[in-house]
Design goal:
Length: 264
């Protein structure tokens, strides 16, 4: 939580952070789309065959955003020196990581399922154009209200391998344990939509495949938000939140499309 100084207007600070979060979602969506473009086409190919006007405007927008955020970043108070680059991860360690994540998800699902309740009807009415009614009926949710999902026990061993940028589950709005969604504090429509995207990913991929894709992508990117499973959830969340868009879309169709295109 941020702390407002006396001379600042708390309402303005709150609104600023809300707008920053929305901008972050849009940037994550653009980053995800650009990453897929970079994987499929070389710089030379894009420069030679891309529509000139589209490419020029994209480059100008990226440059302007870079200059804006770089200027702000230069004013952020200094943080501790980042840890050294972690050593190369072996295939055995990757498989161990997949087992950790898979077991953790199953254990937490069993634990929170005892406390969970169905999604309220008012939220189902908002979300049904995006999710199958069967999924919405199946999902259970828990609002911790004053508590937080604890840090996974296996994190200590993972950090011993050199990974210090593990997802901070205690600071997330929600965590999806297969078909049980747990909210740190209370549920919001935006957080529920994001959590349900992950529920659809579990439904389509299965628990073991989801865990494997997450771990292997995290090993490659070293950053939670860059994992395609997470980036896609943010991208669809951003699309859902756009006030000017009346478009309705099937999250399951979008997830299956990414699976077919091997984008996860």
């Amino acid at each position: 939580m941020y702390r407002c100084e006396n001379q600042e207007d708390p309402v303005n600070i709150f609104q600023m952070n809300e707008q920053l979060r929305q901008a972050q979602l849009e940037l994550l969506s653009a980053h995800c789309a650009t990453h897929q473009l970079r994987l499929r086409y070389s710089n030379e190919k894009v420069a030679r065959y891309a529509e000139r006007d589209v490419l020029r405007k994209s480059a100008q927008a990226a440059t302007a955003l870079s200059e804006y955020y770089s200027a702000i970043q230069n004013q952020i108070p200094a943080e501790p020196t980042p840890p050294a680059t972690p050593p190369l991860v072996t295939e055995e360690q990757v498989r161990q990581g997949v087992q950790w994540v898979s077991s953790y998800l199953q254990e937490q699902r069993r634990h929170y399922a005892q406390l969970a309740q169905p999604i309220p009807a008012r939220l189902k009415a908002t979300l049904w154009p995006y999710f199958a009614p069967e999924l919405l009926d199946q999902i259970r949710m828990v609002e911790l209200k004053g508590a937080r999902v604890p840090t996974p026990a296996f994190y200590a061993e993972a950090r011993a391998m050199g990974f210090d940028s593990l997802p901070q589950v205690t600071h997330m709005d929600s965590v999806t344990f297969v078909d049980v969604v747990v909210f740190n504090e209370t549920c919001s429509e935006r957080a529920l939509f994001h959590a349900l995207v992950h529920a659809v990913q579990f439904h389509v991929l299965g628990l073991e495949r989801y865990a494997e894709l997450f771990v292997r992508s995290f090993v490659n990117t070293k950053f939670h938000f860059s994992v395609p499973l997470e980036a896609h959830a943010f991208s669809l969340e951003s699309k859902f939140l756009r006030p000017a868009s009346a478009e309705r879309f099937s999250v399951e169709e979008q997830v299956r499309l990414w699976v077919d295109q091997r984008r996860y």
